[in-house]
Amino acid sequence: MFKRLTTIFILSLLSQFCLAQQVRPSKSSEIYRELKTLRHIPKVLYLAAHPDDENTGLLSWLINDQDVETAYLSLTRGDGGQNLLGTEQGAALGLIRTHELLEARRLDGAKQFFTRAIDFGFSKNTDDTFKQWDADSITADVVWVIRKFRPDVIICRFPPTAAAGHGQHAASAVVAEKAFKAAADKNMFPNQLKYVEVWQPKRLLWNTFRFGAVNTTADDQLKVTVGQYDAQLGMGYGELAGLSRSLHKSQGAGTQSVAGVRTEYFMHVLGVPAKESLFDKIPINWSDKGIADMDELIDIILLSFDYNHPDKSLHGLLMIRQKIAALQDLNLKKDKLAAIDQIILSCAGFMGEVVTTQAEAIAGNSYNFRLNLVSRSSTPVLLEQVNWINQTDKISRKISGDSLITIERKIQIPATSPITEPYWLEKAAKNAATFSVANDTLIGLPESESALNVAIVLRIGAEKFDVNLPLSFKKLDPVKGDVVEPLRLIPALDLSFAEPVYFAKEKEGLTVTLRLKANKNINYGKVNFKIGTTIIKTFTGINLVENTITVKDFVIPVEDLAKIKTSQNKLEVVFSTEKDEFTKGQILIQYPHLPTLQYFVQATTWLLKGDVKVTAKKIGYIEGAGDLIPEFLRQAGLQVDVLTEADVLDVVKLASYDAVVTGVRVVNTEKRIKNWQSALRTYVENGGTIVMQYNTTQDMALQDFGVYPFNISGKRVTEENAEVKFLNPNQRLLNYPNKITADDFKGWVQERGAYFPDTWDQKYEPLFEMHDTGEAPLQGSTLYAKYGKGNFIYSPLAFFRQLPAGNIGAARLFFNFISAGK
User: Fold this and answer.
1) DSSP state for residue 431 in the 8-state scheme
2) Secondary structure (H, E, C), 538-592
3) CA 611, CA 811: separation in Å to the nearest integer?
4) What is the chain's alpha carbon radius of gyration, rounded to the nearest angstrom?
5) Residue 571 pLDDT > 80, yes or no?
6) Is the peptide bond prior to 737 cis by the omega test (within 30 degrees of 0)?
7) pTM for the whole thing?
């Protein structure tokens, strides 16, 4: 059921669905392109499964050469992939990739949409995908986007067949075909029709491709030449596409900027076939809609456009705005009013912002803000009204002469304002494959619009403009200069466990550590530790001081631990006062190429209790792309040292470690490892143990990284509950210090593993056999070799996912690996 969202369509001077913290004018070359797009009617929706699936070369051409409003709909936010930048996984990685897509869209000019689908990792076919995704739910989301955006042409990146190379890729095409038909059917998803009308795109196409050895193009397909040089950009569209795609940094998707034209191919799927162009039999301009005088007015402005003085076009633009406001087609009017308003304010050189010096705020508190306004137009811009959220001022003041106007005001944040977090993460997900969204009308948006804005009313000529200026944080960074980001609302207290996993030992109390960040004074607080609905232990009389972080230990006695009967438990904490209850911790994500990202997670940790042994004591860790395994091992009571190059090359120091563990993708990310290989082999030969996690075949620092040769492939087992066969149950690695059984492979998340070796030297012993449904058995999930006096283990099993998720079976197996030499 769709819930009503009360909103006013307010001007935003960046992408319509992106949070703009400042309203700033576009450059003259951008204004000129926006004017050409204003003259054009068609829209294109490009559709695929993940961030980085989009054809940025085609998007860049459509927007900058064809002047067509274009959007990319990614079914997922890329939550299931690997992270080249850090340790974030799951929802946090999806948040990073969402904003990497937005940065890419700001560069190439397209809009961005999503569905509620969660990327649950690699799947091999559509059957596997739709075991997780609910096809009707995802189709409904795509229909909603089609009905809101109203594209004339939909282009799929992938076919619904095995040629797509990934089950989610193929599923995106299946969903596209269903949604293409359903969007025009009033009987399909009728609840949406309270807010949108049915819409029938003209055609659905598949953008065929050459990916490696797979070539799906053909001479009889529709062909389009793209990649042309654009003097206003100073580069070709293929070069712009490379820059855009290279913003997918967490995926390591850096792409060459290739100059020169190339051909794109399209196969007809549904609707009216296209023979000459993507836009056959589609109204291209206003004349095709029977409004020829609109084309004439826009053409006059284009011919006389002054790049140095775009404000000279304001008189004609205001006339066009009046004609658009009189249109009978309400959807076309809404779209083109937003476009013309953006152009007019850009031509007026208008800039507006509302900023404070604090990055975070608490609902109910008051803060000092500055409203900064400036206009660079010879045509007067008049400020008529300012709504300060809780107070409205009637004003009549000219903004002109390129002089900055600053108005200072203390603004109280409404006490009912929610904390700042991504709308798709506010509620617990429905399941591992679908996000829960409290307000259904937000579906499709990359992020929700700011709820806290200073609303101003401007007058230019006879026309009024309503402009929302989000409450923002502004600082001077010594490296970046001015940094302007959304003001982030936070709770009065956020709390989290210091460790993702705790091990409860027999006949010992358990010390758990909480991090308590108080944003106001709190007296006589109470802490409850819970597993499910059972309260394990309560602590009272806790006082916290405003603007402090308290790290506090709590000891859960043996008798309370005895209440816990299971080996793997999610331990929750609830902090309560007389009036409030707090259960979440703040997570900040900060990378140079992104704004500061904030979300909140339930304050939980994994409590493992049971038969878990480890005989290793001192571990050396070589960092890869980033995982949480060092923290996990430390919580198990082990000494873990992150090794530097000097440590690896120091024979005596390296020999002091019971085992050396390499981080995920170390061969892809740590280019110096080729210089360390000899030292690492010597370490094993002299009696050491190396446990190497998975690597990919992309950009490898060296090929021969084992003690004996083996070759990694793209083979994987995606079914996390796939049956595991023990090839040699008596192998010591499966019996010491923990007896490994089939039960240890229960409860795994997302996958068994990926990038399994497919050939190896006979001196290696494979430990397991496993496979996805209907596929041939694979034995490359773990290879073991004795080398000299030591042990080498290569295991692309997904330990980096299982251990932070508290999987006790995976922990027992990993402890056996690192204890191989003890």
Assistant:
1) B
2) EEEEEEECCCEEEEEEEEECHHHHCCCCCCEEEEEEEEECCCCEECEEEEEECCC
3) 11
4) 29
5) yes
6) yes
7) 0.88
